Amino acid sequence: MNFLLGAFKPACNISITFTDGKNRKQVPIKKDNGQIVMNPLFQSQETIAGKIHIDPYQGKKVEHNGVKVELLGQIEMYFDRGNFYDFTSLVRELDVPGEIYERKTYPFEFSSVEMPYETYNGVNVRLRYVLKVTVTRGYAGSIVEYQDFVVRNYVPPPPINNSIKMEVGIEDCLHIEFEYNKSKYHLKDVILGKIYFLLVRIKIKNMDLEIRRRESTGAGANTHVETETLAKFELMDGAPVRGESIPVRVFLTPYDLTPTHTNINNKFSVKYYLNLVLVDEEDRRYFKQQEITLYRLKEETS
Amino acid sequence: MIADGTEDEEKWLAAGSAAFKQNAFYMQRAIDSNNLKDALKYSAQMLSELRTSKLSPHKYYDLYMRAFDELRKLEIFFMEETRRGCSVIELYELVQHAGNILPRLYLLCTAGSVYIKTKEAPAKEILKDLVEMCRGIQHPLRGLFLRSYLAQIGRDKLPDVGSEYEGDADTVTDAVEFVLLNFTEMNKLWVRMQHQGPARDKERREKERGELRDLVGKNLHVLSQLEGVDLDMYRDTVLPRVLEQIVNCRDEIAQYYLIDCIIQVFPDEYHLQTLDVLLGACPQLQPSVDIMTVLSRLMERLSNYAALNAEVLPYFLQVEAFSKLNNAIGKVIEAQEDMPILSAVTLYSSLLKFTLHVHPDRLDYADQVLGSCVKQLSGKGKINDTRATKEIVSLLSAPLEKYNDVVTALKLTNYPLVVEYLDNETKRIMATVIIRSIMKNNTLITTAEKVEALLELIKGLINDLDEPEGLEAVDDDDFEEEQNSVARLVHMLYNDDTEEMFKIISILKKHFLTGGPKRLKFTIPPLVVSTLKLIRRLPVEGDNPFGKEASVTATKIFQFLNQIIEALPNVPSPDLAFRLYLQCAEAANKCVEEPIAYEFFTQAYILYEEEISDSKAQVTALQLIIGTLQRMHVFGVENRDTLTHKATGYSAKLLKKPDQCRAVYACSHLFWLEDHETIQDGERVLLCLKRALKIANSAQQMASNGQEGSAGSVTLFIEILNKYLYFYEKGIPQITVESVESLIQLIKNEESMPSDPYAESLFASTLQFMEFQKQKGGAIGDRYEEIKV
Fold it and tell me: What Pfam families does this protein's entry cite (chain B) (predicted)?
């Protein structure tokens, strides 16, 4: 592998290390090619510091017009792949034009970086943070190295968190009342609730609770909406009768969820819904969808 | 249902089992390699097989049992995991990640079991959570089995008194709460089965429900085994809650089974103390519920309880068990208007048995029961249902069996009223039962009043009942048997006091005389005998020996007797009447009532002349006349002459010569009574004997003419010789030595003819007798000495 890389790779090897790289939490990120790699985790207002090593190959010298490191926050729409929209861009010049003969290390630091958005990998859109090191060269083309990192922002529990309670039904056919204990859940939360059957005239086979993600991209006429069902959780088996109440208890931990994102830089939104689905014996589906807000609660570091 | 439904089912079961086994295998492998994640994954897949709807309860149970075994292994593995440091709380959450509810809940119960064992949380909290979560299964069959699993794993983890899971926060109340909740939910599911699916499958469904009922009932069993469920707890919590569920479910099968379950599962003592609650629920059940069986079983249990533990009887009184039961039954019957009569009667029958066991001293209770029963029966006419009839018989027999004394039963005023409702056939059976009871226990019935009551009861035997036309006649043998038993009964009606006894007899007569010709034959003789017995007990003198005015005099009784017997000739049994007259005559003789005795004899003679025509019967009758007459000493000379004359006259008119001969020589006794000098007429004795000889002679001649065996006549001679010897011995002057000797000579001549072994031996023993008397010496010996053989 290395020699192959070497064939295409120009004269030097660039590596980026973070100051607390050994202790910093790493989280898995799925790359374009489907591979899962571990990336360090940051949050907004953190200082991102580290060292950049430039290592010329076998005594080659690297001539350059300057070395810089950029911290980029990018949104990539998949219908416009490769075209990044940078919503954050910070630059640190590391070196004035010159030549590098041997391994050279540059410390860098972006202090208290404002990173309002979280890293997100969706169906049609991606939001990523990356450190980009550029060794600028005139004719031979610049040498660029990227280092992804992940940003997650934690929020305190919302002060107002009402339950969701609603009575729905089809006249003379099915009336239910459902209640979810909150409207805002953190990602490790448990949805608790109850479904009361007020009237049942159809033969229900089972009842599921689905967690759905609705990702909308673009704006105006170009809005593109993609909905995925992330979880399908069976709540009830068999036909209930009037007066039954079925408990709901869904742990969110096992599912790959993100916080709700609303209008990120006018580019995209991610919303979550609980979809209560009743299936009758003829496989007809009766459902009611309710939006919930997901947020990331600061984890206890015990 | 599809024709090859069972075949398909087998296939499905096989497929399910195969998939099940495979996943169980993977699960086991994961367990062996301590891989919790895989173990959960495969166990969930394995349990998914239980999600099938295609199996009948029976087959589903098969699968369930496999799951049960596998889950035990999983539970042990969970336990080990927690020892290895896996947090049980996490485990409890982890199992809930399963997407399908049924596997999830099975796993949750299993994890819950481990959770309780680790005691990291109060048992009650976990149990409560489990029982609540299980609501997610609304499918009856799957729900029942899941909850049954829950009950099973929860069973040894209930915070019962004395259990290791009992704590400050966990009390037996929580245990009860858990079981009750689970019970309620299971019952709901069970009842729901009834209403799901097409109506044409009703029968199959009910059968399937029957197979599942023990799953529901198990909960009650668990409750009954909780140490902490004492009487208070049972009365205040358990019973009301269970009953509430039973009443509210409005399902016939469930109500019947569960009420019965309560009765069988909880101790009798509790039932006794909560009778009103339990009974209060009964009228609220569905009309189609077979309450009768339920209540019968309850009463049966209580009766047995009382029978086995005499010391609890006061409690029965204290809680007024009887009146409560009685009321309850009344209400139940009221509530269920179209209850078949059989049910009502069965209920009363059980109640009666109960009260007889528990309150044997309270006859009024028993009577009350019968009274209620009468009320119930009234307006329904005779009962046609054979089972109901049987039940009434058992109802009526109960007091007899219990008290072994029909007298007690006679005190029950409602008793005969109940009998009224039986059909004739059954009345007869009942009467036989009563009589049998009397005979078995040798009960004497001593007052006229009781006799009257008794006769009322057994009317079926004594009278022809107004049978509807066209009913088959009673079998002759049976009839005879029945009447014989009535006859036997007569002897059990007895009082030492003659007046009372007379009353009894009068009553008997009154009833018996209405009995119709067929019965009289059987009933009159015992009555006469009984009356004669009474006469014998009377003071010998007919007139007042004590200066009192005796209401019962021999004369009166004899009149009475006469009336009775007069009834007989109307019946084709003159024979019997004849004998009875003679009996009466003899009794009159003892009482020195000459005219009465004469009257009886006259009646007897008339009967002889008019009714007894069969020659054999005549012979026997005549013998009876002679025998009786011989003993009569009351007659004056004239009357006696008339009677004896008649008797001898009859003798001579018998058809066969030997019979004539024997009758005539028997008549000789009529003229010689040892102790009465007035009746000692040697002349006529001799006359009789001579006539006998003459007849014997002619008999012999007829015999030699080849008409009959000659041997017979020799016997006659020998017999006459015996008579001669008798009178000779008595010293009648007219019987001379010579006449005896010549007779012996005659016989010896006859003897030479073809021999007859009987005659020979008779003659030999006669001679032997003579020799013997000779040897004895004394006056008699001297007389015999004179006879020269």
Answer: Vps35
